[in-house]
Amino acid sequence: MTDDDRFRxxxxxxxxxxxxxxxxxxxxxxxxxxxxxxxxxxxxxxxxGWATVSCHFRGGGVANRAEAVFLNAAGQLEHESEYRWxxxxxxxxxxQPRVTVSFEIRAPSPA
Length: 111
Fold this sequence. Notes:
Blueprint: H1 3-6, E1 10-16, E2 22-30, E3 37-56, E4 62-71, E5 77-79, H2 80-87, E6 98-106
Antiparallel strand pairs: 1-3, 2-3, 2-6, 3-4, 4-5
């Protein structure tokens, strides 16, 4: 499977988000064979919309999920599955850490 084949998710529909929503993305590394974990990168991005994403899995399964759509550091639109695909490394080369991505959606603060 090539890197291009790994990511076949598709946005089925999308709607705009109310102003003030944010998403915290955290890139986490896990040293294999130990309990050692650390944060490689962390950022907070503005959420601009919500999307229904058709997610395709390696085993052939498909699931539709609601995901945040946000402006990344480069000012480009990205959704959770796409960001996770870009920064995760679930099957690293020997000696390298396993890398995963986690998200926290944050609602607007009350005025």
